Amino acid sequence: MPAASRVASPDEAASPQRRHGSLLGHWNSVVTSYYVIVGASSLLLVIGLVMVLSSSSVESLDKSGNAYAVFLDQAKFALLGLPVAIVLARMPVRFFRAIAWPALGAAIAFQSLVFLGLGCGEGGNKNWVCLPGGVTAQPSETIKLALALWLAAVLARKQAYLEQWKHVFIPAVPVAGIAIGAVLLGHDLGTALVMFVLVAGALFVAGVPLRMFGVAGVFAGAAVTALVLLSDNRMGRISNWLGGDECSASADCYQTLHGSWGLASGGIGGLGLGQSREKWSYLPAAHNDFIFAILGEELGLVGTLVVLGLFALLAFAMIRIISRHPDPFVKIATGGILAWIVGQAFVNIAVVIGLAPVIGVPLPLVSAGGSALIMTMAALGVVIAFARDEPGAADALAARAGVVRRSLAVVGLGRVATARSSRSARDAAPRSSRGGGRA
């Protein structure tokens, strides 16, 4: 056929970007976000369970006579969080929009129990609810998810007016301030800082002008500075972080020092799983806030880079949802959850490697802690529901018969299998059923 009369195919007529495809190649499908979030979250959860077992076994054996005590608790919380995540992942977007207001109200009411005689804690942090029977919960974790959904519901309806101060300020800032203030009343500055980051992430994705962030940053910095200056405990942590002269077992720098020693002794490949020295009661909170140090000690630089890479994959998938989904509610809620989970991860890691003072926030999905684990899994379930609602994702997932075929499709083998089955079907068809050649 002469070149002049040749009709371009739809693929050839597409834009250059579509013709050449994404840098991801066949990985860039409508279900990429879905599988990346599910895969990265699952791997982080498994790594977390393994590291909680390793880092807590010595002290568990010493305190209770059972080396698996903390691990079994963490596994129980993971099993509780799994059905929550699965159920939320199957919910439509309209469900999350509908529950945004009541969810935030219920979360703040739950937090108020801390001040009604049920509060408990340690180290000056009274942000847990202790119920009869030894049941404890951290209500501030529920506020994080509820606040992300509430901000999305409010800001999505106001997107056309976010250039004006009054529409940004009311009601988003006062209500978020009430939620964060309820946490600060329990003296949990670390969780409050994470919530500040969550609010900033939601506002940024909503399209609030950057000049407003500058002014808000000045006020937030002044508030945090005042909270630090009014607390001897916080001032002690910062002064020790900036360079204390002595680092005894009672000093605030002791934890950071031993965390650094654990990371340093791990080298490239680590001492081996279960071979940590710091977990022998040298490093406080080894299975909780400083579990990253034990991970680096036992699995080395390789292990820490794997964990960092998995959090980077979570960030990539959530950014992809924000860029691809047409619903502003989904975009803003995902932005808030992204800022919360990934931001908290890097705050925790910054504390462990000595780039920030000790502020007591766990590593999401990895550190021991029931409330944090369940609510993080719930938040990821919400994001998975958003990923399933991406354009074309629901149809693509429904069209694949089983888990194996879905997995093969992600790595590009599904197309090969489909092509082979199509050729086999054509070869097996009667010759009379085939077309009579090219028209």
Question: What's this, in brief?
Answer:
The protein is mainly alpha-helical and 439 residues long. It has 18 helices and three strands. 39% of the residues are buried.
Report on the architecture of this protein.
- There is one protein chain.
- With 439 residues, the chain is mainly alpha-helical.
- 67% of the residues lie in helices and 3% in strands.
- The chain has 18 helices and three strands.
- The protein has helices at 10-13, 16-20, 32-64, 69-89, 93-112, 139-157, 165-169, 172-184, 189-206, 210-229, 232-243, 253-266, 291-324, 328-352, 370-388, 393-399, 403-410, 413-428, and strands at 119-122, 125-131, 135-137.
- The chain has a three-stranded antiparallel β-sheet, with no helix packed on it.
- Strand 1 and strand 2 (125-131) form a beta hairpin.
- Helix 5 (93-112) packs across helix 8 (172-184), helix 6 packs parallel to helix 15 and helix 14 packs antiparallel against helix 15 (370-388).
- The longest helix has 34 residues, at 291-324.
- Mean pLDDT is 83; it is low at 1-21 and 428-439.
Describe this protein with a few key phrases.
single chain, 439 residues, mainly alpha, three-stranded antiparallel beta sheet, 18 helices, globular, disordered N terminus, disordered C terminus
The Rg value, from CA coordinates, equals 25 Å
Sequence of secondary-structure elements = HHHHHEEEHHHHHHHHHHHHH
Count every helix, treating DSSP H or I runs of 4 or more residues as helices. Answer: 18
For the largest beta-sheet, the strand count, sense and barrel status come to: 3 strands, antiparallel
Low-confidence stretches: 1-21, 428-439
Mean pLDDT: 83
* Helical residue percent band: 55-70%
Spatial sequence of strands, sheet with the most strands: 1-2-3
Q: Count of DSSP E strands?
A: 3
- The share of residues in extended strands comes to under 5%
Structural class: mainly alpha
